[in-house]
Amino acid sequence: MSANVLSLDAVQLAYGDTVVTEGIDLTIQAGEWVSILGPSGCGKSSILRSVAGFMEPSGGSIELFGAPATAPPERRGVGMVFQDFALFNHLSVRDNIGFGLRGAADAEVRVNELLKRCELTDLADRLPAHLSGGQQQRVGLARALAPRPKLLLLDEPFANLDADLRGELGSWCAQQIQSEGAAALLVTHDRREAMALSDRIAIVDGSPGRLLQVDQTQALYQQPNHQAVARMTGEALLVPARAADQRARSAFGDHDVLAKVDGSVTLVIRPEHMDLVPDENGPLVVDHSYFDAQQWMHRLRYNGQTVTVAQNLRLNANRLSLSTQAPIWAIAR
Fold it and tell me: Contact 311/276 with Cβ under 8 angstroms?
């Protein structure tokens, strides 16, 4: 039997004549957390809907647990956690969690277990309207976990929460899902969320959406295969250059590059690569500077791009030049 809980093979999705994704290939193994990261309108949520059974692919195929995914949504054996929580407002916390367990012999035991694990025991008899956003999201996760699914689908579940709670709840959710031994597929446009939670990230971009790269977080950051991947995985200046062997020349001067490449390239210059020097004729413009968490943050502008760089000291200059401190990544053009 396949170790994959989910396999997408050349999946194309469309609404009528409008194609929203093309040729999506993705696998998720048991116990793995994969995130689909991309901007609004690239088809992320449509991919999730197709896995859940709410949308039929117009091309390609989907397998769940080693078999074609042809069952209706309620029989696919997956759980789903929504952005808007999607709780039943007329049911208590306890009844919301137990909704998918009706008729199960161990329903009461399972609900009590999840109430305790999700720190909801004291709230068991409350209605959703009397809960905070974070409490509602915990109820939503507990309800999704109750039938013990092997795969959880999470559709931007933390987007409606404030930044501090989003990070805290995301980490907590990951712990609960891991303790169940379930795999997870998260859809998000927040790179920090994806990078904090994922074993691997699938970068989707464009309209229709195309899968640009799937890899572990560090590899995506250090060796993006596309300019959109470089932008979505962190702050960067994308600088055109000419390369030969492992050297490149750009408007900033000469650079060492990580791999042998020849011809036209795009250099991916991350903040940690930059040695910034005040220069009244420099190509970098300092748009804004502010102090945050023991560091000075500088928003720099170059050739239609902006990048925010942290420095220990304030850069008292309006324009800067830079050199690169270590070999950097180059994307062939």
Answer: yes
